[in-house]
Design goal:
This protein is an alpha/beta fold. Helix content is 39%, strand content 13%. The chain has one domain: Rossmann fold (3-Layer(aba) Sandwich), CATH 3.40.50.300. The chain contains eleven helices and ten strands.
């Protein structure tokens, strides 16, 4: 199980509303095997080792209706321009099968800019991607038909922490740069980045929203998608425990029910985000 580091939460402000975690939060440092899930793991929709078609910058930044100009931010993540200083920045995370992508789609419909770090992690490894040549040179045995086979790459780095750190050093700068470009391109005042783990990967100043679901329900959702049972167990075991996920949250979204229940949870989250942005 990855180590966790405790630090105080800068966003809770001793609030007592249900769903807001007013206690020291934990985060998982980026140098763990699970951090690289978005880079090396096959997609959960039966796209095992098939290279993805390139997703354009414009399509990846999933935006819809802009929020009112009354929205104002409360703090700025480091490394971002003045253009993004007025925005609220949110990390959306949760264990595999928790439903964070569905939460992202619901936030999208409510007017957020939603960025999928998973897509960026795959793109940087595609032929022509920002990290492809460096990774191909460092891990030549993972090349199949001129493309990086993410399954082979995963087996290589998960078995050797030194190799994992090497891969991170080659891919993380490109992933961070891609996320920052997409954040800068967003016109919305609430920017949500869906990430595989909560960490300081993108710097300070990000609010942390965690989607939570019982492990058994997560397991069943993944099996329903056609994933192999042993693969599912391996991926769940590589991630933080349910308690660690919950302790890492500034706001916790309960996805133990059906879609209607989740809509109500996301509406509660949306109200909280609006409150954080001083919208009344």
């Amino acid at each position: 199980m990855p180590a966790v580091v405790t630090r105080s939460c800068s966003h809770c402000r001793d609030r007592k509303e249900i769903g807001i975690i007013c206690r020291p939060t934990t985060y998982v440092p980026p140098s763990t095997a699970a951090t690289m899930t978005s880079v090396v793991a096959p997609s959960s929709k039966n796209e095992r080792n098939t290279p993805r078609a390139s997703v354009s910058h414009e399509r990846r930044v999933m935006t819809r209706l802009s929020l009112s100009s009354r929205l104002s931010g409360l703090g700025t993540p480091s490394g971002y321009s003045r253009t993004s200083m007025e925005r609220k920045h949110v990390l959306l995370a949760g264990g595999i099968g928790s439903g964070k992508s569905e939460v992202g789609r619901m936030l999208l419909r409510r007017g957020c800019c939603v960025i999928d770090a998973d897509e960026i992690g795959h793109e940087v490894l595609e032929p022509g991607g920002e990290a492809f040549e460096r990774v191909a040179a460092a891990f030549p045995d993972t090349l199949v038909d001129g493309a990086v086979d993410r399954g082979l790459l995963a087996r290589d780095v998960f078995a050797d922490p030194t190799r994992l750190r090497l891969l991170e050093s080659l891919t993380h700068p490109a992933i961070r740069a891609g996320i920052r470009r997409d954040v800068e391109a967003c016109g919305e005042r609430v920017v949500v980045v869906e990430v595989p783990l909560i960490s300081d990967f993108l710097g300070d100043g990000w609010m942390r929203v965690v989607v939570d679901a019982p492990t058994g329900r997560r397991l069943q959702r993944l099996l329903d998608r056609g994933l192999d049972l042993e693969d599912v167990r391996r991926r769940i075991d590589a991630q933080p425990s349910r308690r660690q996920w919950r302790d890492a949250a500034d706001f916790l979204v309960d996805n133990s029910g059906d879609l209607a229940d989740l809509e109500r949870e996301v509406e509660r989250l949306w109200s909280w985000l609006n409150d954080q942005c001083h919208v009344h």
